[in-house]
Design a protein that fits this description.
104 helices; globular; mainly alpha
Length: about 2000
């Protein structure tokens, strides 16, 4: 009870956290009550429970959990901050509530999820629920599905995203749990309600039974679309409407339709990548001569394009191939198949196919001449699919081009295509500018002689009529007779539009309609359904409201497009002409009889009175009943327009104007009066009244029609006064009415006539008219008059100059409509007039001038020829001035020039494209995707002038095309996605300029948002600034809500920063431009100037807003916004006097200045500032640092940092610590300055400051490691030496911290470079520092292998070993431990590396090694495995760079802390000492992680053909070379580092300098110590070329080949210098061989001209490497490389492993020569490790047996060369007894001893001893040299041979091969024969014929490393692994000889074949008998030559050998002839 009383007193929030469940239960109950009482949703009380709500729902007690869930539900419903808990609470509900047995808990959990959705958090809830679908607990999965279903049912598909749900459904149907499958079925039914048939494709692969059940359920569903029943908080207006409808039972169809979502099944599908799946020979087959092969290729493609959604890519080649098949293939079946493939491609790519659409449509239309139904149907499907990827506007030119074709089938199918296309259009997507030329072409076809053509044209016109309505269509049908008009209307009534005003039912009808087989002769309207049914979903942006049944004056929305036809609607209300009697009758109803009678009176006064009555009659008459035609005909009665009295005439003209203004004045009425008005317009007294009447008529009948009639009439007369005044009236009328719809061509013709008039007034009026027209048309108008006389042209130019800068006035008059709804929108007028002006200009077709020769020039490899091609193209454009859009394949070629490596040509191409835009006009829009987008790519160029040219070109294109084409599709977002700072800042700046000028933008603009948000966090400050400027412009079109929703998909940290930026941008979103007034295009052109001022104003406002925000809310600045505060603002804030001191420190402490760090490095290199290098810091260093910090560090922090009092330093360090996380980017930008300042603090004596510095350093290096930052050399060199000084501090705490920091630095700085700095620390006088540095060196060597030692292992270890004799014990111990570490890695070789030590030091070292060996025996196998895995990880970290970097320092710590060196660590590691550098270079070049391409199989048989090495140019030695060479090693280090540069020229220059050094014998030694470094830089460059340069299409491949030549030439030179070649370490050689083999297998080289030559050069280089390198290192590296290649199957092909093995075989052949200098222990250790990874059983399982045979051959060769002593070389292997290697060696040696035991014993008995026991190696070489010298002299030859025989017998293991190899083949044969003779003489066996003396001897020169067959080396071993004795081969040889007649038992005795005494015993391979005979003949020939020579030199030695040889030779020849004849 006491406990209960205690918790009862606690507040509610503490009860909810209490450990007693009853307390929590009580707390939850009280909390629920409290939450219901709080009225204010923003009460601070809510925030108390913010962190507790998750605990409410995840309570471990079931009873308490129920109450907690209830309380949580109330909280979420009422608290304004509840949304912050969405993710964690939803996760808790899924994992801890849905698995509860109580149904109530599950219900509450579901309600909580739904409530979160209601409070505007649907995304995180859905994300957690979808995660729950992967849970292993089926209860949770079922509950998650049920919750999703319920959410979808209540909130609808607009709130709940369907795509991830649909994606998860198939997996749910595969579940083992029936409950999950059943719930998934219900969910699928619910989803189907919302998206209907769009769900079918994603579920097509589920179980057929399940699919059948679903179909049955779907059929039962109601056809009406579902409606949202639960609403978000922001949808309360919808909620109230919904409640009203339900209350009134009003279930309106319109509302329902609005609620129904439009989901495209295409969006729910995953794209499939098909380009890589194309057959490799696809392009060869598709152009094959045999149609069957072409068919195979097309069928393979057809299978791939059946995928409903295809991944975007470069399909240009595929489309080109299909186009060729369709257009040119003679086999119609293949044409149909090609069309099907094209249709599938278009359907799968949709909008991404738009680029290719215009290229294929002309071909498809032309191919409609085919009459076979299946071909026509395939072509129809193809062209329909292509249409859906683009717009009719883009295809209209191609369609119009074939409408006049002679072939009726083509005309018919073109019309049918238009009919089908119109069905997808709406009034807004089918404007008059497009409809007019199409209707004109179709109207011609309705009069065609072919019935099919006529019917197709009727169908197309009828569909157009249905789409746009009669009001807009009638102007084009004015001349069509009634029968044909009725036919068009009849067709219109039959048409069903895809997007009609009854979209729900229409869409359903379209989807359910079956596809109809289309016959070419059919005219049925059904065929238009085919594309509809095929389409997965409708395009997004189409209106649902189209007037379908509006009549002529109907006000429907179909009146959208407009422009030219202001006149048309009224004119085409054709009024029949009335007879004079009817006119009199109708006029009498309005006018008094007296008036009519006096109209033709002879008395002018009566006529005047009559006119007055006439006027009154008209004024009082009803508008609707005013008979206009009758009245004007009465006015035209005699005297009519010949009236002589000016008063009567004025009155008459006034009445005409009155009738036109008041009545329904038709064109028929106008025609009655116009002639008279034109006749009087030049009259002095009546002219003004005539002009007023004309203006009134223009208002009634439209200015375009009136003006055209008036001008024609005026110039039909010869009255110059009338002509001049008509032109003057027209000038005024254009200003009053605007320019829309005017027939400029007609006017220009009349104006030209006027300009040629003799009357100056007419010419002046014409020029004035041109000036007015210039206001609207602009510069293109002048092109019509360039042929005029210069004097007249100058007058015109003067008039145009007057008009420049003026804007066209707003129209004050318009076409008077009797219905307000008939008025067109101004925007449409502008659109129409622009198009009209451009359409008027005469254009030239230049397609015939775009010849293949020109295209070849533009694509030539020589830049001069490319330039010549561009010049020719410019000439063509200049001559044509205005061109048609048909330019053939020119776009593709020009696109390539935009990527030209020559920047001058890029700029010239941009100028050409700018010129092309001017010449082509608006038609250039069809090339936007092909050429326009690549222009945007050029904005990423590094040169400012190129970017400026690209921007100018881009703007000129946009001026012609508008922005719509640029914003449609994914192209813009793909460009913004590229991480190029120049491209991003230019593109964002351009968008920020253009977007505010648009009234509406494409919805595809939303695709740019993810990349726009990433730009807000870009490392480049300019990019971030441009992104901030662009945010309001994007928001102007996309809305704040959409942009916030898109930000919800970002990472939490990024999301917070982006949302802050969006909130700021929301305040400055510009208003959309208002609908433009009905002015001209010229006035619109003036708009950007005003826009600029608006943007400037908004930008100012933005800056002010930021400043105010900074002032009012300082904390807001710390929130981590990516928008960095401008320097101006950050400096401005502290200057305010009224701010408190605390507020001064509120801003960011770092100011990011782009490229400031790089500039500081440049200044230091240029010696503009002091280099940071000192023993103790002087004042000038401090002042310099202070100056450098002033521009990028906050003033107040700088004052703290440089304050004399140490307390301020601690404050500064605390500030740096606080801001480290929030200002990481700023810290990195100023890192060099921070580190320099910290080095100053190292010299402070205050321990507190030092400890704080070390604390900050630990944290900063942790952050840098997480950021994947790499320390620069400048930063390291100015910091590391001073840090290493502190490692000798007397305090243990400080030393530990410093060592810890050094450990962390290995993550951000290469260990090899760090090694050099630590080595410098050994020179310190501080013994503690030396000891710590030695321990650090040991730890680095232990982790990173021996190659971390710099400059070379030998030099470094000599320095370390010199510390063994130090007076200080700790230094001695540390040095000994370090050397022991090296011993554990490389064994006895360490004694060579450390040089000479004193006896005392050597004994200490040996003792320590023995002691470490004893300790190592206690090391557990677990540690050994851990070490092995670490080394393996180091080997593999090339592909996963950061992984290696993260693992190694942790192991480094273990090495430092334990300081125990076990022999298990002697496993040779594959060195990666420069791994960090390598990764950094690759990352800097955006190489990323790449996969190796599939390597092609090379023909390796000719690799040893003579190789022509590239001739290195003989360069004179640089004049500064001696200075450079005389400097320290740092100069060579610098040059070597440049070899790995990403810039090709830099690398070539560095290689040239090294080449100079290597080619001069006296200077080549300076490279000693730098060989590893040079080789590492070289293979890094090879990797860079392989991964980056070769993949970069922009790079000139000749430069790459040049670089390859330099690298290979340098390496060959290097490996010819044996002393330098021997310095290459094992790890470096491994990487080098890896890179060279990859280079040999690079298939891309074969495509280059000099590629094969490079491969041959590489082959030669590899031979040099194998022969000249240290044999131990190269053999070890090849074994490890083979192991890696067999493991890494994903990265290396079998060919790679095969080449590695061939290199090993080469080394095996060289083993007899190298066995005495090879470290056999290391080799056996490597083989041991290989056998551990690949035991015998695993090798047997491999596809190829070559690895096993290679391993066996290597071991057998070693056994043969070393004999039983090989067992003494297993010292480095731990647990030898368990090693598979030892068992194998024992077995082999035992077997070989059994075979040769007798011989060995006899040798031993005779006292024969080995060289190792008797003589040193030096003595051996001297002795042999003397012997060979004797043999070479004539006098002592026999004596020399005898001594050689004795020497060989005495030293059985002596190797004389090196001496023989230097001599000629003849000399070798001579020695062989001589030794044989001596042997026979000594043993009394008689002389042996010289013909057999050299049998079995093979010259090493006959061997080649790669050409050898795969079985040549391993043949010495039998299948069971045991060596085969010579007896076996002798038996085989005997049988073969008998078969061929060479062996006769009666004549020849069996005898052992003579073996070479000079060579090691080798196992002869089995050869055919004919081969043996050829060999025998060759030996006989040698023997004869020898005897001849002996005869000349030694006559006494002649015997019967010559005759014997000749006899043998003749005998053998006869036998050979016999064998050949028997074979025939």
């Amino acid at each position: 009870m006491g406990d209960e009383c205690e918790w009862m007193k606690l507040p509610i929030d503490q009860k909810c956290e209490h450990k007693v469940w009853k307390a929590r239960l009580n707390g939850y109950e009280e909390a629920a009550k409290l939450f219901q009482k709080i009225q204010d949703e923003k009460s601070p009380e809510w925030s108390k429970y913010l962190g507790l709500i998750k605990k409410f729902v995840t309570d471990s007690n079931a009873v308490a959990q129920l109450k907690g869930l209830e309380a949580a539900l109330v909280y979420i419903e009422n608290a304004h901050v509840a949304g912050r808990t969405t993710g964690e609470v939803a996760s808790g509900v899924v994992n801890k509530v849905f698995n509860q047995p109580k149904a109530r808990a599950k219900e509450l959990g579901m309600e909580i999820c739904l409530m979160y959705i209601e409070i505007e958090k649907p995304e995180p809830v859905q994300e957690e629920l979808l995660k729950g679908l992967d849970n292993k607990n089926p209860k949770i999965v079922v509950a998650c599905i049920e919750t999703i279903r319920k959410a979808l049912c209540e909130f609808g598909s607009k709130i709940v995203q369907l795509k991830p749900i649909v994606k998860a459904l198939p997996k749910l149907f595969e579940s083992r749990e029936k409950a999950v499958r059943d719930e998934a079925k219900l969910l699928a039914v619910e989803v189907y309600k919302w998206i209907r048939d769009a769900l079918r494709p994603p579920l097509q692969n589920i179980n057929s039974v399940q699919l059948k059940e679903l179909e049955e359920e779907w059929v039962k569903l109601p056809t009406t679309a579902p409606r949202q029943t639960r609403f978000l908080r922001s949808q309360q207006d919808l909620k109230s409407k919904f409640e009203q409808h339900q209350a009134g039972g009003d279930d309106e169809e319109g509302v329902e339709e609005d609620e129904a979502p439009v989901v495209d099944a295409y969006d729910l599908l995953e794209p499939v990548e098909i380009l890589s799946k194309l057959p490799k020979d696809f392009y060869e087959k598709i152009e094959a001569k045999k149609w069957q092969e072409r068919k195979e290729a097309l069928e393979a493609l057809e299978v791939l394009v059946k995928n409903p959604k295809l991944e975007s890519g470069d399909y240009a080649d595929v489309v080109r191939a299909l186009k060729k098949v369709i257009g040119k293939d003679s086999n119609v079946l293949l044409v149909a198949l090609g069309a099907k493939c094209l249709a599938g491609l278009a359907s799968g790519l949709r909008k991404k196919f738009q680029t290719y659409a215009t290229h294929v449509v002309p071909t498809l239309l032309e191919k409609f001449k085919e009459k076979k139904p299946q071909v026509v149907q395939a072509l129809q499907e193809a062209i329909d699919a292509v249409f859906l990827t683009t717009t009719l506007q883009n295809l209209s030119e191609d369609v119009l081009a074939v409408m006049d074709n002679k072939n009726p089938s083509i005309k018919q199918q073109a019309s049918l295509f238009l009919a089908r296309s119109f069905r997808y259009c709406t009034a807004s997507t089918l404007p008059k500018s497009l409809l007019k030329p199409l209707c004109a072409a179709l109207l011609k076809q309705i009069n065609d002689s072919a019935a099919d053509v006529r019917d197709a044209a009727f169908e197309a016109l009828g569909t157009a009529l249905k789409v746009v309505g009669e009001r807009l269509m009638n102007p084009f049908l004015v001349d069509v007779d009634k029968l044909k008009l009725d036919k068009i209307k009849e067709c219109s009534d039959k048409v069903e539009l895809i997007h009609g005003n009854k979209s729900a039912t229409a869409t359903k009808a379209v989807k359910s309609a079956p596809q109809v087989k289309v016959a070419p002769s059919s005219n049925s309207g059904d065929k238009v359904d085919a594309p509809a049914t095929k389409t997965a979903g409708p395009p997004k942006k189409l209106s649902n409201k189209v007037g379908l049944t509006k009549k002529l004056k109907g006000p429907g929305p179909a009146s959208a497009p407009g422009g030219k036809g202001k006149k048309a609607v009224e004119i085409k209300e054709v009024e029949p002409e009335l007879s004079i009697e009817v006119c009199e009758e109708r006029a009498a109803s309005v006018l008094p009889a007296s008036c009519l009678q006096q109209l033709d009176s002879s008395n002018w006064k009566e006529r005047l009175a009559s006119m007055e009555e006439f006027q009154k009659g008209v004024e009082v008459a009803d508008k609707k009943e005013l008979p206009c035609q009758a009245l004007v005909r009465m006015l035209a009665k005699k005297p009519g327009w010949k009236e002589t009295n000016f008063q009567v005439m004025q009155m008459k003209l006034h009445i005409v104007a009155l009738i036109a203004q008041k009545g329904n004045f038709s064109a028929t009425s106008a025609e009655v009066v116009l002639d008279g008005l034109v006749d009087k317009i030049g009259d002095v007294k009546c002219g003004m009244k005539a002009k007023e009447a004309l203006t009134a008529i223009a208002e009634a009948c439209s200015l375009p029609w009136t003006a055209e009639q008036v001008v024609a009439m005026a110039f039909a007369q010869k009255n110059p006064k009338n002509q001049a005044e008509v032109l003057n009236w027209l000038s005024t009328a254009i200003k009053e009415f605007g320019f829309a719809g005017l027939n400029v061509k007609a006017f220009i013709s009349s104006v030209k006539t006027a300009l040629a008039a003799t009357n100056p007034a007419v010419r002046t009026s014409a020029i004035t008219l041109l000036g007015v027209m210039y206001l609207y048309m602009g510069a293109p108008l002048r092109m019509f008059f360039e042929d005029e006389k210069p004097a007249l042209l100058s007058q015109i130019d003067a008039e145009f100059e007057k008009m420049q800068g003026q804007t066209a006035p707003a129209p004050i008059r318009k076409l008077v409509k009797r219905d307000a709804d008939d008025e067109e929108t101004p925007e449409e007028q502008d659109e129409e007039e622009n198009g009209n002006v451009q359409d008027l200009l005469p254009r030239t077709d230049i397609s015939d001038k775009i010849t293949s020769e020109l295209l070849e020039k533009l694509g030539d490899k020589n830049w001069k020829i490319r330039k010549e091609g561009l010049d020719e193209l410019n000439t063509v454009l200049n001559e044509a001035k205005l061109i048609q859009p048909n330019i053939g394949e020119l776009p593709g070629v020009l696109k390539g020039r935009l990527n030209d490596s020559n920047k001058i040509l890029v700029q010239q191409t941009l100028v050409t494209l700018q010129q092309m835009a001017t010449a082509m006009g608006p038609n250039i829009r069809q090339h936007v995707k092909t050429l326009g987008i690549p222009i945007i790519t050029v904005l990423g160029d590094s040169k400012a002038n190129v970017r400026a040219a690209a921007l100018a070109t881009l703007n000129s294109w946009v001026e012609k095309t508008g922005m719509k084409e640029w914003l449609d599709g994914e192209d813009l977002s793909e460009e913004l996605k590229k991480e190029n700072p120049f491209l991003r800042q230019e593109l964002l700046g351009w968008l920020a300029d253009k977007l505010p000028t648009l009234r509406s933008a494409s919805s595809d603009l939303i695709l740019c948002l993810p990349h726009l948000y990433s730009c807000l966090e870009d490392r480049n400050g300019d990019v971030r600034k441009k992104a901030q400027d662009a945010l309001p412009m994007f928001m102007m079109h996309l809305s704040y809500e959409k942009m916030v929703r898109a930000a919800g998909k970002l990472k939490p940290t990024s999301k917070d920063q982006v949302v802050v930026a969006l909130e700021k941008a929301q305040a400055i979103v510009p208003a959309k431009p208002a609908a433009p007034s009905k002015t001209s295009s010229k006035s619109n052109a003036a708009r950007p100037s005003s826009t600029v001022s608006v943007r400037a104003q908004s930008a100012t406002m933005n800056d002010d807003t930021d400043a105010v925000a900074l002032k009012n809310d300082p904390k807001k600045n710390k929130s981590g916004s990516t928008a960095k505060i401008k320097p101006g603002i950050s400096k401005k804030v502290p200057s305010k006097q009224n701010l408190k001191d605390d507020d001064d420190k509120s801003g960011p402490i770092f100011i990011i200045i782009p490229n400031a760090k790089e500039q500081r490095v440049k200044d230091e290199r240029a010696l503009k500032v002091l280099k940071w290098n000192f023993t103790t810091p002087r004042d000038e260093y401090t002042e310099q640092l202070k100056t450098q910090m002033s521009s990028c560090v906050a003033k107040w922090l700088q004052d703290e940092m440089f304050h004399p009092d140490f307390h301020h330093h601690i404050k500064a360090l605390s500030t740096l610590l606080e801001h480290l996380e929030s200002e990481t980017e700023g810290t990195v930008a100023c890192l060099d300055l921070i580190l320099k300042w910290l080095t100053l603090r190292f010299f402070d004596t205050n321990t507190s400051v030092l400890m704080k510095v070390l604390e900050y350093l630990k944290l900063i290096f942790t952050v840098l490691s997480k950021e994947d930052y790499h320390l620069t050399d400048n930063e390291a060199s100015s910091f590391l030496p001073y840090l290493i000084n502190k490692v000798g501090e007397p305090k243990d705490v400080i030393r530990k911290d410093v060592r810890s920091i050094m450990n962390m630095m290995c993550k951000v700085y290469p260990a090899s470079k760090m090694f050099s700095f630590v080595m410098e620390g050994l020179k310190s006088k501080n013994s503690k520092q030396r000891a710590e540095c030695l321990e650090e060196l040991g730890a680095l060597i232990e982790v990173y292998d021996l190659n971390v030692c710099q400059p070379t292992p030998a030099k470094a270890l000599k320095e370390i070993a010199s510390q063994i004799g130090d007076r200080d014990t700790s230094v001695r111990n540390a040095a000994l431990n370090t050397v022991v570490t090296v011993y554990n890695i490389c064994g006895d070789q360490v004694f060579k590396l450390i040089g000479n030590l004193s006896e005392k030091e050597m004994s200490m070292l040996e003792e320590r090694i023995k002691r470490s060996a004893k300790k190592s025996s206690t090391v557990s196998t677990k540690q050994v495995e851990e070490k092995a895995s670490r080394t393996q990880g180091l080997n593999q970290n090339a592909t996963v760079p950061r992984k290696g970097c993260e693992e190694m320092p942790s192991k480094l710590n273990q090495a430092r802390s334990s300081n125990a060196h076990s022999s298990s660590e002697s496993n040779p590691t594959i060195p990666r000492e420069f791994q960090l550098d390598l990764d950094e270079i690759e990352n800097d070049n955006n190489a990323g992680r790449c996969e190796l391409p599939d390597l092609v199989q090379h023909k390796l048989d000719d690799l040893y053909e003579p190789v022509c090495l590239p001739e290195p140019k003989n360069r004179s030695v640089s004049p500064h070379f001696d200075e450079i060479h005389g400097s320290t090693d740092s100069t060579i280090n610098f040059v070597v580092s440049q070899v790995a540069s990403s810039d090709i020229n830099t690398s070539i220059q560095a290689l040239a300098q090294i080449d100079e050094v290597l080619r001069q014998e006296d200077k080549a030694d300076t490279m000693s110590g730098h060989i590893d470094q040079f080789l590492i830089a070289t293979f890094m460059q090879l990797r860079l070329i392989y991964n980056t340069h070769m993949a970069d299409e922009k790079l000139n491949k000749r430069e790459i080949l040049k670089l390859y030549s330099c690298i290979i030439g340098n390496m060959i030179t290097l490996f010819q210098i044996e002393t330098l070649a021997k310095e290459a370490s094992m790890g470096v050689l491994k990487d080098l061989m890896h890179g060279l083999i990859l280079l040999m297998l690079d298939s891309r080289l074969e495509d280059l001209d000099e590629g094969p030559q490079v491969i041959r050069s590489v082959n030669l280089l590899m031979v040099k490497v194998l022969e000249k390198s240290d044999p131990t290192n190269i053999l070890s590296s090849l074994i490890v490389l083979l192991q890696d290649s067999l493991l890494a199957t994903t990265n290396n092909t079998p060919k790679f492993s095969e080449l590695v093995m061939k290199c090993l075989w080469r080394m095996i052949r060289l083993l007899p020569n190298n066995v005495n200098i090879i470290n056999v222990d290391r080799i056996l250790l490597d083989i041991h490790n290989f056998m551990r990874v690949f035991p015998r059983e695993r090798l047997k399982q491999m596809k190829s047996d070559l690895p096993m045979r290679t391993q066996k051959t290597l071991l057998h060769t070693l056994c043969k060369l070393l004999g039983p002593k090989i067992m003494d070389h297993l010292a480095l292997i731990e647990n030898k007894n368990e090693s598979e290697l030892e068992a194998y060696l024992r077995r082999v040696t035992k077997h070989s001893m059994a075979l040769t035991g007798g011989k060995i014993d006899s040798d031993t008995e005779k006292g024969g001893s080995t060289i190792e026991d008797k003589e040193s190696k030096a003595k051996i070489s001297e002795t042999l040299a003397e012997i060979f010298k004797k043999i070479g002299s004539k006098e002592n030859t026999r004596e020399g041979l005898a001594e050689l025989y004795e020497y060989r017998k005495k030293y059985s293991d002596a190797d004389i091969e090196p001496f023989l190899r230097k001599s000629s083949q003849f000399f070798q044969n001579y020695i062989e024969r001589g030794l044989r003779l001596v042997e026979n003489e000594r043993e009394g066996k008689g002389r042996i014929s010289s013909s057999s003396s050299s049998a079995g001897f093979s010259s090493p020169a006959d061997e080649s490393p790669y050409v050898a067959s795969s079985t040549s080396v391993p043949s010495a071993v039998s299948t069971n692994g045991e060596e085969v004795g010579p007896a076996v081969y002798l038996e085989r040889l005997k049988i073969l000889r008998q078969r061929c007649g060479l062996e006769n038992n009666s004549k020849h005795e069996e005898r052992q074949p003579a073996t070479s005494l000079l060579s090691k015993p080798t196992v002869p391979t089995v050869a055919s008998s004919s081969e043996l005979l050829h060999n025998k003949l060759a030996h006989l020939r040698d023997s004869r030559e020898y005897n001849q020579e002996q005869e000349s030199h030694h006559p006494p030695m002649q015997t019967n050998s010559n005759t014997t040889s000749a006899a043998n030779l003749d005998d053998l020849k006869k036998r050979l002839e016999r064998i050949k004849s028997s074979r025939k």
